[in-house]
Write a structure and sequence with these properties.
By secondary structure, the chain is an alpha/beta fold. It is built from four helices and eleven strands; from the N terminus they run H-H-E-H-E-E-E-E-E-E-E-H-E-E-E. The model has no long low-confidence stretch (mean pLDDT 92). This is 5-formyltetrahydrofolate cyclo-ligase.
Length: 195
């Protein structure tokens, strides 16, 4: 399938989840995150904040536990630089720092920038990903540009309610594949292949 057709299908699938299904899938993602990923060597973790109107996975429950139980981890949040289309990364200090952007996504309005080379793990939003670790987002390219600036050993984890699909047909040289995709049932590790 193409990115456009997957984008349409998986947004529809997410929006058709009942509130009970959505809550259950989020809880299973949360449990699987902490049982499947080793956070002992992570010093800086970058995570997206969920766009709730699109029923994105709720990263807040992961953030809350990290802040309580993993004091050695600093959290970093994205902010979209409207003029350049780039993601800026800002260390998360607290809810007082956040405001909604034009898309309705909470992001830091101020704070200390996070140098991309300091980031050890990135939780990546997506609508779908394939069995090679290629992802489909909303089509703006924010995360592909950002991930290209991270260290080669930075761990990239896509977060999805759905299992990976057959390989996406229209991958291009700017697409940065994921190393992992976390779903409610599994943690998929992808064989890294060059484009």
């Amino acid at each position: 399938m193409t990115k456009a057709s997957l984008r349409k299908e998986y947004l529809r699938k997410r929006l058709s989840l009942s509130e009970a299904e959505y809550a259950q899938l989020n809880f299973q993602l949360y449990q699987n995150f902490f049982s499947s990923l080793d956070l002992s060597f992570i010093k800086v973790l970058h995570t997206f904040l969920p766009l709730q109107k699109n029923k994105e996975p709720d990263t807040w429950i992961i953030i809350d536990r990290i802040r309580r139980e993993f004091p050695h981890i600093r959290l970093s949040l994205p902010r979209i630089e409207q003029a350049t289309g780039a993601l800026e990364n800002i260390f998360f200090e607290g809810l007082h720092q956040l405001e909604k952007n034009a898309w309705g996504i909470a992001e830091p309005k101020q704070g200390v920038p996070t140098p991309p080379l300091q980031i050890d793990m990135v939780l990546v939003p997506l609508l779908a990903c394939d069995t090679n670790g290629q992802r489909v987002g909303y089509g703006k390219g924010f995360y592909d540009k950002f991930l290209a600036t991270c260290r080669p050993d930075c761990i990239t984890v896509g977060i999805s309610f759905f299992e990976p699909v057959e390989p996406i047909e229209d991958i291009n040289a700017f697409d940065v594949p994921l190393q992992y995709c976390l779903t409610p049932a599994s943690l998929h590790r992808f064989r890294q292949t060059s484009f």
